[in-house]
Amino acid sequence: MSSLDGAVVALFEARMSTELAALVRRHGGEPYLVPAVRERPLAGGPELDRALAKLSAGEFNIVVFLTGVGVRRLFEEARRSDCLEAAHSALTQLTVVCRVPKPIAALKAENIPVSYAVPSPHTTRELLAVLSSLPLEGQHVLVVHAGELMPQPAGMLSMRGARVTELQLYQWELSKVDAANLREFMQHLLLAEIDALAFTSQIQVRHFFQIVEELDARKEVERQLHDRIVVAAVGPTCAEALRENGIEPDVVPSHPKMGTMIVALARHFSSDKGTHSNRKDSNPTPKCLS
């Protein structure tokens, strides 16, 4: 089995941090947990109540789930509104589209069949391709967003003649505690105490560089990431977020899953390019934030 060879791997995942840390240890690495995003439930309102009423009445033809958290939050709100049974019944009878595997698992737990699972690597491009294959003219589509509102797939659905209702049931945020921990982490990074970064979402990348900018440390952090630290992205969307910040990831697994990413990272460190004696820079110059 490939080994991380004692590398210190920074993990920015919050919800699955324990499982991800265990994977790093299993492959011979030392995890450094520094969550860079939390999921805060958003309070319901008239728009949500109307959407739940339409769902319960069977008025939607298609529902698009972008995340597993969105599925769980929808059921929580249906329970709060005392329409859980009706909403559940409606979901079993309409077309359900899931962008990634997590909403599929969440729906399976509720015994709700999934009509279309977007193929790997589960990006917006694949999602739009699946939706484009469906008859959309005049259809009423419910899009349950991730932790922020995105222009797609609602934009394409509207252009194809669908009536679109959008819901955002939770919000991605960087808490004060996590921001403070990230600032402390930057000191360790600049002191050459971190060997690899493992990002599992684009919002983690954005929050990471938010703190970098706040500390006025972009030049030095970029130097470390270019010259010494191995950077892993769970999939193409996350990788693109890194590229937008001037960083080309060293590791992007063929299948966008956290476990696959850690295996790919271990292979990287086991290769000639990734060994401790042959890393990007075997003699880094430690820096410290002033």
Helix and strand arrangement:
Elements: E1 8-11, H1 17-26, E2 30-33, E3 38-41, H2 46-56, E4 62-65, H3 68-80, H4 84-91, E5 95-98, H5 101-109, E6 116-117, H6 124-132, E7 140-144, H7 154-159, E8 163-167, E9 170-173, H8 176-190, E10 196-199, H9 202-214, H10 218-227, E11 230-233, H11 236-244, H12 258-270
Parallel strand pairs: 1-2, 1-10, 4-5, 4-7, 5-6, 7-8, 10-11
Antiparallel strand pairs: 3-9
Helix pairs in contact: 2-4, 3-4, 3-5, 8-9, 9-11
Task: Figure out the total of helices.
Answer: 12
Q: Please identify the structural class as seen in this structure.
A: alpha/beta
User: What's the pLDDT, averaged over the residues?
Assistant: 93
Rg is 21 Å
List the uncertain runs: 273-279, 282-286
Query: Order of strands across the widest beta sheet?
Result: 6-5-4-7-8
Distance between the termini: 41 Å
- The gross shape turns out to be elongated
- Describe the biggest sheet? 5 strands, parallel
Number of strands: 11
β-strand amount: 15-25%
CATH topology of the largest domain: Rossmann fold
Count of separate structural domains: 2
- Return the CATH architecture of the largest domain: 3-Layer(aba) Sandwich
Q: So what's the oligomer here?
A: single chain
Q: What order do the helices and strands follow? A: EHEEHEHHEHEHEHEEHEHHEHH
Report helical residue fraction. Answer: 40-55%
